[in-house]
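Backbone Fold Data
Goal — fold tokens
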Amino acid sequence: MLGLFPSIQYIHGTTNNHYLSMAHWRQGEVAVSRFLRHVVAGQEHPDPPRRERDEFNRVQGIPDPSYETLICAGEAKMVLHLFLHDYDDQKILSLCDGQPMFVFSNDHDVWRDNKKAIVEYVPRGKDLKLIWERYSKTDRIIKALEPARELGTEESISFSFSGKTWNFYVLNIRSENIRAFQERVRDMPDLGSTPMPTLQPTAKIGPTPAAASGGWTFCANETERCNFSGTKKLRYGADDIYTYGTFDNGVVCSNTAFGSDPLLGVIKHCDYADISKPTPTPGLRQPSQ
């Protein structure tokens, strides 16, 4: 019960429509938030994450970690802010300007906010842990960091929940190297339109589905962006179980965009189709006078 009031207070203070925000309290996003809270606290994380007492507040009875953390999550937003609010969630999630990656239209914008957060970070005598959820936009960012990665150590962390595995790329920077790391990042170019070599993902998302039938065209795997022009009808799911929606000029293929998970624990994809216009009923032609 000790964590109930902060959770209600946080929801109330961050949205004008309190019922709208409840769409963000989904099992997967809660699992991600529980996992990352343990990482931020410097505590061994359970796999899979599980519900704990007073989990909306700082973990009690353990010393502060020897590092500070900046995180760029894939989809979790409001619930992640809630779980980290007692650790200064605004600072921790500044790596993506407080937003999950799915809201960004491209990796250029993610990298722009990443650079800003790293360069403006104020060292406080601790190491720095940078975390990116492995997402469709992270590979080029990790590649862009290559000139500075020698100043830190890399690792991958992950957890499984309800049949799905979440993977995270971590770059650890020792306190004595932070200033040099910031200078190198400051001098790095923006991500341009010329494709950069990509890293192999830490986990295979799944094969690209075959071309859809019945007027549907495959456009993206789960967490990727489905690109199209104009207004299209989309379906999101797998194995003939779908959630449907109508979108303009592209959308991220995700539970968040469609408002639900039609198949929990199953890798999904998106197809789009043209919105059919009703065929006008031909009228009787009057004979000419």
The chain has a mean pLDDT of 80. The chain has eight helices and ten strands. The longest helix spans residues 27-41.
